[in-house]
Amino acid sequence: MGDERERLLRKNKFQRSISYAQDELQSFRSWLRWMCVDQSTISTACLSWSVFILLAIAVPVMSHFLLACSSCDAKHRRPYDSVVQLSLSSVAVLSFLCLSRCIRDYGLRRFLFFDKLRDESETVRKNYMDQLNRSMKILSLFVLPCFAAEATYKIWWYSSGRSRIPFLGNVYVSDVIACMLELCSWLYRTSVFFLMCVLFRLICHLQILRLQDFARVFQVESDVEAVLKEHLRIRRHLRIISHRNRVFILFALMIVTASQFASLLSTTRSRADVNIFTAGELALCSMTLVAGLLVLLRSATKITHKAQAITCIAAKWHVCATIDSFESNDPADTPRIQIGGVTPRPFPSGANDESDGSEAGDEDDDADNTRLIPAYANSTISFHKRQALVIYFENNRAGISVYGFMLDRTSLNTIFMIEMSLVLWLLGKTIGIS
Asked: H-helix or E-strand containing 401?
């Protein structure tokens, strides 16, 4: 009887892990189909690759070589078009290949860790579903403003340009079709790039929810073994996220950095013509790439910070339990030293006051706060077990890493200083800044 029940439980868990058409990701899959990145079937995969080759490679190449417009006036020349097209196509190719590989190898449910939600609390599942439903809104907030600015520029360029290419026999029809193809190409490339960034942010948000839920074990009477097992499970998932996304993060950082240096080198030449008409599209491209990179780095840094904050929570839990155990073991008639007629208290009454909560920031939660922890541990957990757990946390810091390089605030400062040094060196070679 017990074996039959266990077999049924395993079967139910497996059925919740597999992907099927009418699951909670149905609306999300419809968005992927509209964006032409869904590869769940052979027909959608062929359509996805065809649109990718057309809009991410073919249209940018034809736009650069057929619409160079060397005979245009100063306002309609495109001297920085090669940097723009190459930068956007590079991040689009990187994003599309990484997304295709992850969905092909793991499936959409496994890639988004929906198969692991059965082991989480109801709060984590609910908040993760809410964040999933908000993902496309966040994607729209990044893509639509950039697309509106690009559409304004393209419509002005085609409507006021002197040079026209009547490849369809009629110059007006040719301009309309060329403008629509260029706008579709821009929208597709930026959407695919931001989609991968938003999906990475979504996955990181799930782990942050789990860490916040995990931090609550120190506020109740918990067993050290259970705490250790849960932390090991979280660390394993963080390693999986790092392994799946390290190529995308590394190459996105390299492509965006190379794009910014190419833009800087092109605009700081002695004969460079820089104004809103010639360099506006380049500036828009740079802001788009930097915004996507900041989404990646901020998500990785935030989850690393939350994971490492668990060490502080465990140390505070250990200290509170140790102090409380000593207080409870003191004889009732033990005299206390009084200073100014006031008996010192191990936990001042103002320690947990919320009057200064507004100054602590908006991210003060169970995984990162300055409140004392009720000492539940002294009754069942010995001092040595708590000490061993704290030492384990100190020597096994979790977080998002890229080939062993932990993405935390220190690493971001290092990246910033390296790139700033390269920028100053490049400016020194071009316009003489020393």
From this structure: strand 401-402
